[in-house]
Amino acid sequence: MIRITELRLPIDHAPEALEAEILKRLAIAPKDLMRFEVFKRSYDARKNSALTLIYTLDVSVRDEAGILKRHAHDPHVRPSPDTSYHFVIQRDHNQPAKSTLRPVVIGFGPCGIFAALLLAQMGFKPIVLERGKVVRERTQDTWGLWRKKILNPESNVQFGEGGAGTFSDGKLWSQVKDPKFYGRKVLQEFVKAGAPEEILYVSKPHIGTFRLVGMVEKIRQEIIDLGGEVRFGQKVVGFDINDHALKGLKLETGEYLAADHVVLALGHSARDTFQELFDAGVYMEAKPFSVGFRIEHPQSVIDRARLGPHAGHPLIGAADYKLVHHAKNGRSVYSFCMCPGGTVVAATSEPNRVVTNGMSQYSRNERNANAGIVVGIDPSDYPGGPLAGIDFQRELESRAYTLGGSTYEAPGQLVGDFLKGKPSTEFGSVIPSYKPGVHLTDLATSLPSYAIEAIREAIPAFEKKIKGFAMADAVLTGVETRTSSPLQIKRGPNYQSINTKGLYPAGEGAGYAGGIMSAGIDGIKVAEAIALDLTSA
Predict the structure, then answer these.
(1) Cα separation of 214 and 239, whole Å?
(2) Is the pTM of this model over 0.85?
């Protein structure tokens, strides 16, 4: 097939216009076009008065070689790449494996799900250990915090089947380099599990929380049907390491599980497990992450600013944004995990701490838009070793709990008051979505002074890019601390820990991903590495 890129049409083009434009671009007659499919569709909103759709198409034609030869100098007409997934190996159970032990996956978030799924599809029958509950029970526990202010430390936004990605916007795009099209494999598995097929071609696909719940259940069942096991309420509390090689795992139940090929897909909030790994001598380093607030605006304000007369167009839906500002004090401030038409959610996993995150459903039809407005920090801001970033996060989260009234309500402030440096006393036109609730106060003491200074400078700068961003009634809710893991468990080119053979650090918690898509891709890579190691001579 032939791939055509950068084919542009007005947003309201007629359906037949796409075929006509293909014929024009390739200079062929209608009889020579056999079929075509949309590989990707995005839009250009730089001039919102004349929005255009941008297509990447895979086209089947007669005389493909001749057409490619005629367009040899056109960079936007090329042979279609092979985007199908090819297993690195398929286990032959008649052949002895390198180890008699089954591979183990710790954690059943996006990374652990795809590591386990690929291992199962290749015939290795993995054992999954998830400290939390099945996704529907976990959802009930999560609502317990949001509605009743009751936290279950082992079953919440961070812990349980599906990981933190289940309570998010369900974004399915990433900026990681993906030359082998692993991301396509992730999307195809999601479609097979019930996601809409449009995620295969829209430029910024998303699913939303409710759909993710059912999809996770279906993928879990496929793993089981292929011979894998998924065990819930199985918290790993110790690592048996001898002579720099992993021998087994100690579970909170008292069980010992012999294991020599273990995927460490913990997620970024498994702080107690990070401590266990550190105490066991597994090498790790502190790494940069970001802290800040959630900001909420009426979604209509963002739609008008970004899309102009095309606000509300069904092909585009609720508008998003991505913003960056380099402050005078040397700090970078940027928008993080923007959730159009969504809600701000309570995302703590530890008692007496407040953490915010963003979430939206597939429809993205809630009143407010929200995003993290966060400031980059690095280990020089929290010296003290590999786990110092966790201590730094905990300090800010405990402070936010106190500022919010010590009831799991979050501290909040109107943007206008924040910029003026005065406490807020009542809400304006924007009603915050965070549950259990928002306690108005002064956020100046909730973050380090350099972060407050940088955010105060960034918000007016963002107003120049999105009209209404600095509206006085917009609401800031604190604090956003779990943007990414504060540490990295170092691994080598074979994906194993650099000082612990058999341990495969993976995904967001280990410092190798950020979001559902990149975590899923990393899970695939680690599963391949284990499969190859198990079948090597």
Answers:
(1) 33
(2) yes
Q: Which residues does 529 contact at the CB level (< 8 Å), separation at least 6?
A: 494, 495, 496, 504
> CA–CA separation, 147 vs 170, rounded Å?
22
* Helix ranges restricted to H, 387-504: 388-403, 415-420, 449-463
> Which residues does residue 137 pair with via DSSP β-bridges, in sequence order?
none
Give dist(CA 172, CA 362) in Å, integer. Answer: 12
- Most distant pair of Cα atoms in the chain: their distance: 72
Instruction: Report the half-sphere exposure of 78 (CA within 13 A, side-chain side).
Output: 8
Rounded distance between C-alpha atoms, residue 279 and residue 243, angstroms: 15
Is the pLDDT confidence value at 309 over 70?
yes
Pairing of strands 104-106, 262-264: parallel
Count of alpha carbons within 13 angstroms of residue 394, beta-carbon side: 13
CA separation, residue 354 to residues 9, 11, 347, 374, 485 (Å)? 47, 43, 7, 16, 17
The backbone torsions φ and ψ at residue 297, rounded to the nearest 5 degrees and listed phi first, read -125, 160
Task: Count Cα neighbours of 159 within 13 Å in the Cβ-side half-sphere.
Answer: 25
Alpha carbons 385 and 388: distance in angstroms, whole number: 5
CA-CA distance, 468 to 309, in Å (whole number)?
A: 16
* Placement of tokens 């990433």 in the chain: 174
What pairing do the DSSP bridges indicate for beta strands 262-264 and 324-326?
unpaired
Q: What is the pLDDT of residues 488-521, one digit of tens each?
A: 999 999 999 999 999 999 999 999 999 999 999 9
Q: How many other β-carbons are positioned within 10 Å of the β-carbon of residue 47? A: 9
* pLDDT score for 213: 85
Which structure tokens are listed for 306?
A: 């970004």
Burial of 525 (0-12, 13-18, 19+ CB in 10 A): buried
Average pLDDT value over all residues in the chain? 94
- Read off the DSSP letter of residue 202: B
Kindly state the average pLDDT of the residues 245-274.
Answer: 97
CA–CA separation, 510 vs 284, rounded Å? 9
Q: With the CA atoms of 259, 161, 165 and 291 taken in that order, what torsion angle do they form, in degrees rounded to the nearest 10?
A: -70
Residue 134 CA to residue 432 CA, distance in Å, equals 30
Two structure tokens written together for 457: 């400078």
Return d(Cα 194, Cα 340) in angstroms, integer. Answer: 22
Q: Is the separation of the CB atoms in 376 and 331 below 8 Å? A: yes
DSSP 8-state secondary structure symbol assigned to residue 419: H
Buried b (16+ CB within 10 A) or exposed e, 275-304: eebbeeebbbebebbbbbbbbbbbbbbbbb
What are the strands, taking DSSP E only, across 171-330? Answer: 229-232, 236-242, 245-251, 256-258, 262-264, 284-286, 289-298, 324-326
Which of 81, 106, 152 lies closest to 274, judged by CA?
A: 106
